[in-house]
């Protein structure tokens, strides 16, 4: 094997190993989220042009404009069902919400920051 072939092979293997490690780390962050406590959720509904996902509020941090939601799969983000914290596009969205509330929400991923752009109680 010549030097160029060896260098190319090692570069490709290193890239593959890095990609695989990142995927594994991301998967570890999403495992173990049991959705059985949410009862039967009917899937996504529409609010205007936005696809809404059903979930349950698990925590609210109004100071940081963040909300924890145990949610179904979010199709527009290709995200499986899990519990996670989202940024909130407008802090006013958190008014009248409390932990345990069933909600429908729309989330987007602008600049790699998962953000709730619309939310309503069920």
Strand content: 25-35%
Please give the oligomerization state of what you see.
single chain
Q: How far apart are the termini?
A: 64 Å
Task: Please identify the structural class as seen in this structure.
Answer: alpha+beta
Q: Biggest sheet: strands, sense, closure?
A: 5 strands, mixed, barrel
Order of helices and strands: HEEEEEE
Count of distinct strands: 6
Contiguous uncertain segments of 5+ residues? 27-46
Strand order of the largest sheet: 2-3-4-6-5
Number of helix segments? 1
Q: What's the helical proportion of residues?
A: 10-25%
Integer-rounded radius of gyration: 19 Å
Describe this protein's structure.
This protein is of the alpha+beta class and 122 residues long. It contains 1 helix and 6 strands; from the N terminus they run αββββββ. It has one helix at 3-30, and strands spanning 45-47, 50-61, 66-71, 82-88, 102-108, 115-121. A 5-stranded mixed barrel has the order 2-3-4-6-5. Strand 2 (50-61) and strand 3 form a beta hairpin. The longest helix is centred in the first third of the chain and has 28 residues, at 3-30. The protein is elongated.
In short, what is this structure?
With 122 residues, this protein is α+β, with helices and mostly antiparallel strands. It has one helix and six strands, in the order αββββββ. The model is unreliable at 27-46 (pLDDT under 50).
Give me the secondary-structure topology.
Layout: H1 3-30, E1 45-47, E2 50-61, E3 66-71, E4 82-88, E5 102-108, E6 115-121
Parallel strand pairs: 4-6
Antiparallel strand pairs: 1-2, 2-3, 2-5, 3-4, 5-6
